[in-house]
Amino acid sequence: MTKEILKTTMLNCSLDEQSILAFQSRVREVHDNLPNYYATGWVDSPLEDNKELLKSINYVANEIKACADVLVVIGVGGSFLGARAIQEALTPYFGLHKNGIEVVYVGLNMSGAYIRELLAYLDSKQVYVNVISKSGGTMEPALAFRVMRLYMEERYGDKAAERIIVTTDAEKGILKNIADQAGYRQFAIPDNVGGRYSVLTPVGLLPVAVAGIDIIELMDGAKRAATELAEPELIYNDAYQYAVMRHILFAQGYTNELLASFEPGLSKFHEWWKQLFGESEGKDRKGLFPSTVSFSTDLHAIGQYIQDGRRILFETLLHFHEIEGDMQVPFDERNEDGLNYLTSRTFNEINAISKQGTALAHAEGEVPVIQLELPKLDAYHLGYLIYFFMKACAMSACLLEVDPFDQPGVEAYKRKMLELLQEEKEGVK
Ligand code: PA5
């Protein structure tokens, strides 16, 4: 409907413009009420003057790149998914970005094998650590930090403190206390920005800057999105249109949303999206179930179900018109495989045609497809898309009448786990 940088289109199915625009007054109500939520610091932050912050992040990132072979990022949920998503989308499939070093993640699980192998892997490398936790007390990263801190002290002695950077709340939490006492350098997570909305703060920016990504470009893209998507009129706001489309489809019985793309580098971006929507909307027995597929790989895995299984799925298809790096199909005079007819094409062109074919086949199979189109897969447009999804998610959750910014359900497993560990705790008192 609009001329913005990101275009939201319903590729098939009965959702016409009128049924979407019928939500205008409800959307306006939610839009006007959004600032009343405390945790909306991310809404205007890309519009603020963030030059000094970006400069200090780049300064530390440059030091890490000069003194280390690998940065170990410790975090879970919103404290690592965004950084990993951007890194994977914008760094080479094989090898490192020309401006960056290796960035690896720990504290996202409690596998003993994982952390043990990581320590062995690090032994031949120079290491920095960035521990990220808003609350400062989450079990997975806290345990990983305990291990990494001891490891760094054993390897670097008095110099270990210079190699540990802490990203946490500006005022409170166990991690904040540890950092103050040990003299670790710190970046603050704004109090009014929750974990899964924090990727455009130091939480995501420091790791991706170390990986070689231009965080100024990333934030410029987010700034453009924050400007364009501040628009209350549904017809001019593609994020709100996307929120309304998924809301209507949910009401029609399409209970599962599949985020799909044809570029494998986006599969970690899918994971970030899944957490954003799953944790923001899955409440009070409501919410679309967010799931993801990486095509064409998954066409050979769950393509059959999508095409022919229960009609509970709709697809949100991410499409970047330009992907850096491509290759022509080579000519082979033997032509034993019969594929010489494709030699006028590149792989990316065939991939785009396969996307078109998939959308047409899914239309025939009565799978609604929402397409989100962007000009290019780069830092600028990814910054735009991240902001787009956060704004759409906040709108979508509010349309469902759930709080987009809390996560009471996540506490349930933590309580049970701590109850089970309580006996040990009492034993060591
Ligand atoms: O979105 C959220 O709030 C959560 O996913 C948190 O990011 C996650 O639980 C990690 O929390 P913390 O950063 O406090 O360690």
From TrEMBL:
<dbReference type="GO" id="GO:0005829">
    <property type="term" value="C:cytosol"/>
</dbReference>
<comment type="function">
    <text>Catalyzes the reversible isomerization of glucose-6-phosphate to fructose-6-phosphate.</text>
</comment>
<comment type="pathway">
    <text>Carbohydrate degradation; glycolysis; D-glyceraldehyde 3-phosphate and glycerone phosphate from D-glucose: step 2/4.</text>
</comment>
<comment type="pathway">
    <text>Carbohydrate biosynthesis; gluconeogenesis.</text>
</comment>
<feature type="active site" description="Proton donor">
    <location>
        <position position="279"/>
    </location>
</feature>
<comment type="similarity">
    <text>Belongs to the GPI family.</text>
</comment>
<dbReference type="InterPro" id="IPR018189">
    <property type="entry name" value="Phosphoglucose_isomerase_CS"/>
</dbReference>
<dbReference type="GO" id="GO:0004347">
    <property type="term" value="F:glucose-6-phosphate isomerase activity"/>
</dbReference>
<dbReference type="GO" id="GO:0006096">
    <property type="term" value="P:glycolytic process"/>
</dbReference>
<dbReference type="GO" id="GO:0097367">
    <property type="term" value="F:carbohydrate derivative binding"/>
</dbReference>
<dbReference type="GO" id="GO:0048029">
    <property type="term" value="F:monosaccharide binding"/>
</dbReference>
<dbReference type="GO" id="GO:0051156">
    <property type="term" value="P:glucose 6-phosphate metabolic process"/>
</dbReference>
<keyword id="KW-0963">Cytoplasm</keyword>
<dbReference type="InterPro" id="IPR001672">
    <property type="entry name" value="G6P_Isomerase"/>
</dbReference>
<dbReference type="InterPro" id="IPR035476">
    <property type="entry name" value="SIS_PGI_1"/>
</dbReference>
<keyword id="KW-0324">Glycolysis</keyword>
<dbReference type="InterPro" id="IPR035482">
    <property type="entry name" value="SIS_PGI_2"/>
</dbReference>
<dbReference type="InterPro" id="IPR046348">
    <property type="entry name" value="SIS_dom_sf"/>
</dbReference>
<feature type="active site">
    <location>
        <position position="414"/>
    </location>
</feature>
<protein>
    <recommendedName>
        <fullName>Glucose-6-phosphate isomerase</fullName>
        <ecNumber>5.3.1.9</ecNumber>
    </recommendedName>
</protein>
<keyword id="KW-0312">Gluconeogenesis</keyword>
<dbReference type="GO" id="GO:0006094">
    <property type="term" value="P:gluconeogenesis"/>
</dbReference>
<dbReference type="Pfam" id="PF00342">
    <property type="entry name" value="PGI"/>
</dbReference>
<keyword id="KW-0413">Isomerase</keyword>
